[in-house]
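Work Package 3 (structural annotation) set out to generate three-dimensional models for the target panel prioritized at the project kickoff. During this period the team completed the workflow that converts sequence records into discrete structure tokens, so that structures can be stored uniformly alongside our sequence database. As a representative example, we reproduce one entry of 468 residues exactly as it appears in the project archive.
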Amino acid sequence: MPGTDATVAANRFGLGAAPGELAALGDDARLALRAQVHGAPPLIVEDLPSSQQLLAAALAQRAASTEADDAPPGTSSPESPARARIAPAARVLRGIYLPAYNADALARFHRAVTTPQGSLERLLQFCSNHCAVSVDKLVVLGPEGPMERDAIRPHVLGNFADMLLAATRHPAMLLYLDNVQSIGPASVAAVRAGRRGRTQGLNENLGREILELHTLGVQGGYTQQDVRELATILSGWSLGGQQGRLRGGQTGQFHFHAAFHEPGARTLLGRRYAEAGVEQGERALRDLALHPATARHLATKLARHFIADDPPAVVIEAVAAAYLRHAGDLPSTYAALLDAKQAWATPLSKFKTPADYLHSAWRALQLPVAAKDLRLFEQLGQRTWQPGSPAGWSDQSDHWDGAAALMKRLEWAQQLGATQGPRRDAAQLARLTLGPLWSPSSAQAVARAQDGAQALTLWLASPQFMRR
């Protein structure tokens, strides 16, 4: 039977064990994981639209809708009158963003279920959730999938500063946190607007979330003045190819609108940043990435995600030290986590999120992925890329293990048991996926099941399968 380390590697650090995975990891599971985090991120093979393509299509659709709505009476149109009255935003949502979201979410699910490197996909999902945007703000429904593909995945085994910059500059983040039209109060654009009797404002959302969530953390020692200073530094970080005062640059790509940028030197966390246009923001973000508070914040989140809701202080300190010692190099940071003995402790203690639960079930049963399966994430309480706030999905068990949530899982487990159980050997699946961590009491319950459907349900509902 495969050893304990292989079981922990596949279930805690990965997305759940597939049949044969524990045997493949063997007695060198820790070495195998270290090799993965010092390798290359898995490539994307799906042909999916970029955020630039989606935003360009959305802008074109809106322009066409506006022209149709403004057409003189009697002008012929290929659209019916009823369709012509549909709001441009609804047309973009239905015709462009929703299909793109579904395609990206399905591809993400497929990768999670089929990858032989589950630990890398888990790290990708962890980093994506760290720099979260939420698709309940419909303007990012289309660009969010490309953000994970283009801003997070290439850097998940790179340097955190590069990931931070890529995520901050991505259209999904700029739109989600309203930086697209953030205008410095003394900028060229604001002065011009003032002459016409209009007031243009600075938006602090991006600056605040970078400090509170992406870098220093809520206990990181920053002030409201630091929030405003960072927001001012990032004024002008926007998108290109739009109409009116936003025109310029490539449609749907990051563009620095110099006229929106607040001129002058700024002071952030006691450090002065000379005026340098877009480079002023880039320097500030790179310094934030290497701040000791950022190291501790990331270390705490990693330890909480992989080890325990209340992670050991000694692990946090070790991971933070490795992060600073290696100047934000993420593979070295992950390696410090893998070196912690607490990371390999048993039994499995982290309660699975709904996504973890579904991923591990699909991997164990080797089920095909279909578009209709995406609804299960929402039914169980974790629709893909919809955490509801920039803070991302919670890593605390008490967010997921309530009575109502457990009942939904059990109902789903019974449904899956009814369809898959008659042709499955639940006892064998438990041994292949949970190895020595499959408890005697759970094994006895499965052995006493009245039929295959009940046996499979009991395995899916067991304490060992519910945790990672």
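The chain is about 55% helix and 5% strand.
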